[in-house]
Specification:
mainly beta; 3 helices; six-stranded mixed sheet; 134 residues; single chain; three-stranded antiparallel sheet
Length: 134
């Protein structure tokens, strides 16, 4: 199966989706699972999200985050004004970019850099005013 990876090293994990899939081998972004015997079985799983328990993830260093931890966080300006909610985290090759949805549905993107996001924690993301302009 070809995977879109969100981990540096998939081989650190042996089971996925609460033990439903057992990793047999991985090479780059291609994985083989014990329960998937042929191409037809693999194609039937197209679009399936593979998950691992949070407890099996490695601890984070200072300044690191898991994308899932950013999703749903309220975003505020550095002046404390509400901006909206983080609805997506993308990476187009030059680093992570968060997408924030304002009330009413309008969205904007901000690089996840110290200049644009000087502060974040489990309760909120602070966006510099220069990056939060309409």
């Amino acid at each position: 199966m070809k995977l879109k990876l969100f981990a540096d090293d998939l081989s650190a994990f042996s089971t996925f989706n609460d033990g439903a899939l057992t990793l047999r081998a991985v090479r780059g972004n291609i994985a083989r699972f014990a329960e998937i015997g042929d191409r037809t079985a693999a194609e039937a799983l197209r679009g399936t999200e593979l998950t691992v328990p949070r407890a099996s993830l490695p601890p984070l260093a200072d300044g690191e985050y898991y994308h899932a931890d950013l999703l749903g966080l309220p975003a505020v300006s550095d002046a404390g004004d509400p901006l909206g909610e983080v609805v997506a985290v993308e990476n187009f090759g030059a680093g992570d970019v968060i997408e924030i949805e304002r009330p009413g549905g309008k969205r904007f993107m901000v690089p996840m850099s110290p200049q644009a996001v000087p502060e974040w924690n489990a309760e909120r993301i602070v966006v510099s005013a220069a990056f939060a302009a309409d």
